[in-house]
Amino acid sequence: MTPELSIIITVLNERENISPLVRKLKYDLSGIDYEVIFVDDGSTDGTPRAIRKIADERITLIELRKNYGQSTAMTAGIHHATGRYVALLDGDLQNDSSDIPFMLDKLKSEDWDVVAGNRKDRQDGFILRKIPSRVANYFIRKFTGVHIKDYGCTLKIFKKEIADDLGLYGEMHRFIPVLAKLQGASIVQVDVKHHPRKYGQSKYGLGRTFRVMSDLITMIFFRKYIQKPMHLFGTLGFIMFSIGLITNIYLLVLKMMGHDIWGKPLLILGLLLLLGGIQLITLGFLAEISIRIYFEAGNKKTYQIRRIVHGQEKSLEYH
């Protein structure tokens, strides 16, 4: 029987959090027909063993062969979800599963496609977590036009068809609202509870900000130019051509006046920077498009599964 809600929880070295998390899910979601899909992203502390130990008929464990990253782990969970709705939840107990019933009801009663959480009273370090997050959130809002307060909150609920078409690659999980908006999804954000981490260590730091900013460039391209790339490349090409034409006319005038222009820094540096910049930017965008075509058109996956365990089954499915 198809459950109403699939809860996807990606975990990496969260062994101590598993048991209290499962107990809290059972208490908070007692009135909902749900399944829990744990995706272990290459844990080395015995997390999969802890999940198998307490698994029941509602719990499925997907063990990835190595650490692929949170976005890929989420994709694996979404591919195996069977519910009409999909919820994303962190495995560190900082998100509160008691917010899920309210979010699910809001999504259904008001017919939203996505209900995203906003950590109103975030319980994280100010310098290493809050400041980088605020900087990243500001730039994402500024350049994508999708005005969500908290992009970094994992707790979100989707209609299944929206989750299936997100196309999460690399480290794109922070941009889920933007990816959903590209599908034309309606999104609302609600305040949710947030708790300090009790067990284990955070997997995030200042280095994440630089990865987010790199991914933001890609998101700007896909948000604004995926259906009209010539508006980007044509504009850049025209600007570059105009600058080059003006530069060459200037150098031609100098040549006609008897000056030797060969070897001038203006000529060499200008050509190298313009041609090198255009080639690098173009190659980067073409590579992104090629990767998406390769995986989506060929129905290929960006991960490999070691095994899938359904509830307390003894037999394992190897992939």
List keywords for this structure.
single chain, 319 residues, elongated
Describe the SSE topology.
Layout: E1 5-11, H1 15-28, E2 34-40, H2 47-54, E3 59-64, H3 70-80, E4 85-90, H4 100-109, E5 114-119, H5 126-144, E6 156-159, H6 160-164, H7 176-182, E7 187-192, H8 207-224, H9 229-256, H10 265-297, E8 305-310, E9 317-318
Parallel strand pairs: 1-2, 1-4, 2-3, 5-7
Antiparallel strand pairs: 3-8, 4-6, 5-6, 8-9
Tell me what the structure shows.
There is one protein chain. The protein is built from ten helices and nine strands. The protein has 319 residues and is an alpha/beta fold. The model is unreliable at 315-319 (pLDDT under 50). Strands 7-5-6-4-1-2-3-8-9 form a nine-stranded mixed beta sheet, with helices on both faces. Helices cover 48% and strands 16% of the residues. The chain has helices at residues 15-28, 47-54, 70-80, 100-109, 126-144, 160-164, 176-182, 207-224, 229-256, 265-297, and strands at 5-11, 34-40, 59-64, 85-90, 114-119, 156-159, 187-192, 305-310, 317-318. β2, α2 (47-54) and β3 (59-64) form a beta-alpha-beta unit. The two termini are 24 Å apart.
Low-confidence stretches: 315-319
Mean pLDDT: 81
Spatial strand sequence of the major β-sheet: 7-5-6-4-1-2-3-8-9
Helices and strands, in order, run as: EHEHEHEHEHEHHEHHHEE
Tally of helical runs: 10
Q: State the helical fraction.
A: 40-55%
Structural class: alpha/beta
**Could you give the count of β-strands?**
9
Distance between the termini: 24 Å
**β-sheet strand percentage:** 15-25%
The biggest sheet, with number of strands, parallel, antiparallel or mixed sense and barrel status, is: 9 strands, mixed
Mass-distribution shape? elongated
Q: Cα-atom Rg, whole angstroms?
A: 24 Å
